[in-house]
């Protein structure tokens, strides 16, 4: 994968796992390894989405209880 094809992190100064994965070369991976990596990434996306949903529900409950702050 060329450097130009790699996604840019919205938080470029961080060295979190997603940013590190985006910078990793995919050249040494076989087709089976790519498929396994994709499955793992889909599972991680589902985990992060569930966390975001819970965080939103928590925020909405707090706003309903205490009122939204400007």
| Alpha-carbon distance between the two ends | 45 Å
> Describe the biggest sheet?
none
User: How many individual helices?
Assistant: 2
Structural class: mainly alpha
Q: Looking at the chains present, what oligomeric state does this protein adopt?
A: single chain
Strand content: under 5%
Number of strands: 0
Helix content: 55-70%
Q: What sort of overall outline do the alpha carbons produce when their principal axes are compared?
A: elongated
The mean pLDDT is: 86
Describe this structure in words.
The radius of gyration is 18 Å and the shape is elongated. The chain has helices at residues 17-23, 31-66. The longest helix has 36 residues, at 31-66. By secondary structure, the chain is mainly alpha-helical.
Q: Main attributes?
A:
70 residues, mainly alpha, 2 helices, 61% helix, elongated
What's the short story on this structure?
This protein is 61% helix and 0% strand.
Topology record:
Elements lengths: L16 H7 L7 H36 L4
